[in-house]
Amino acid sequence: MCSLAKDSILNFENDSDFDFDKLPKKITILFVSSKFVATMKSKPDQVEKVFILEEDKSRVDNQERFATGKDLIFLLADAIYRCYNKEAKAYSESGDMSSANRKKEEVNRIHSELKKTHQRFFRRDSTINTSTSTLTRVIWLKSKLEDDVEMKRLINLFDEIISSFSVFANLSDLREYLHEHETFAHIFLIIDTDYDDLVVADFHKRSNIKIVLDYRNTDRISFNQECLDIINQASTIFLATRHTSTISDNTSDLGINHRGGYSGFVRTYEENGYTYIVIPDYSGNRFYQSLGNIETDRVAGVVFPCFTSGDMLHVTGIAENIYDDEAECIMPRITLLTRIKLTGYVWIKEGLNLKLIGPEQYSPYNPPIRYLAIELEKMGKPSTVSTRNAKLIEIKKLTKLISRFTFELDEKVSFKPGGYVILDFAHLIPQTYQHMNNNNPQSLNDDYIRTWTISSSPPFNLNTNTFDATNQISCTIKHLPKGTISSLLHSQSNDEKSPLSCKFLGVGGEFTCFDNTNQPPQKLLFIAAGIGITPLLAMFEALSRTKQKTDIVVLFSGRGDEIDLLKDFISSPLVSNISMFDSTGVNTSKSLQVFNRRIQYDDLLNVADLMNRQVYLCGPTQFMIDITSWLNQTGLKSEQIKTESFFF
What we know:
This protein is of the alpha/beta class. The chain contains 14 helices and 30 strands. Helix 2 (71-93) packs antiparallel against helix 3.
């Protein structure tokens, strides 16, 4: 197997010392028992990932827990495939296509050969009494928690896969064995490349455990800000419910289930002196144990853990399930939720003996955070269901993947340049139940409602110095291969006999360069990445229509033909400078500066008269975080930096 992946697997030779500290700085994958994991007080620096051999097959998920050793070669193949593809992508983005192609060739060869090895490794040939697998032995370092019964189960786990199973009770005996015996058949896998950052929960002894607040069996209580912070940071909660039997059959019991989402997926509000917790229901296994218990016995408890501080917030209350229109009145776009009226809570500081030592990774199945109707109203965002329609009347292709779609509305609407529109396509998409969809995880909890920037400007009346209402809006939308709605739109054409029609939910937005008197700043800096330029297109069109004397500098990060999105900027007298940053290195232009790299801090410092400009920033989340940080470092005031988020 080493010959299949020369620089990706490292063997321990006969004279190797079984000591992680002496290993080179490579990435190690451990295959161990769940009990062994429980004894690990800390994770060696070289160990990147721990995969668990699980005797309880009901817990096997083919990702981190394995019922048999047969999965391990598949794991190795997939791990190398993922790692090498990541390296190939990095080489490609840096312009080193030779190295990228070499890595792609290697990964395809290794992946194919390892799959063949798996087939040979476990194939039973009727003409041969033994198989290749009889050459393989397992060496197991026994943890203090593992008894003889468990070890027997582990040995049975590898039955007919290996020739022998050697167990050692301590590290010194294991080291001595490795020194004295041939170990060519014992394969220790070390992947020689970088993985993405992984979440690791470390066992952490807390030294200052104490109950900070204790409000039990009290109706009219509120959360303080510290408790709200614990709720808002939680991406994992545990919901406890109760089933009380109405007959004497001893079937009454308590139950607990996990709920998860992005941090902040659980919302809270106060009404008439009471505090409420709202938990939206997402697509799951459709067993509904907790919801069923709540229907018959309305007591519930919730634990909100904080893996960073170790704080635990225990909450009790009276729960109810709310459905359909009533649910949407509380939390728009959600048709099933659980609402808990608070009756008590206990905040325990440092009560959790686990500590997060790596960045948090979210499930790809998580839907966006859904806000309460009262929260949306405070944000000035639509919160009610609409029966108005929007009909697609024109499509204009701008790049290979980006087109401009113009919709005609049932009635005229008013909005500021840079605002957004919310459209509902749910009735156009056939919806069937799926528990899992690894090819497109986001589709499971997709409500098919989209919020897009309006990339067109409303008409401007020079006589009244106002933007008029209009019944036509345009959205510039990029086709995403796995995007259900973008794929639907990009499959349309201008000669459709029955133009596509969707529901229009509303417009809004405060991300605009125009004040209440429709006057813009004299000096502007537009910074955008990719399709994030769309609100700036609307502002630019409006500035051109109002004939205002403004000075605009544009910094745009894009790839390939996304340079075509800048066409109108290039010829405009309003724009004093345009710089495009393309890390793919494929763009050149005589009409504007093109840098074959990403935007850097110095590029902001080089903007003429930067300190007197109002900045409008839009793009991917990390892009905006980085740019905002750099802008703050330049000395710009926070009120000079405007951004927009469409996660609502």
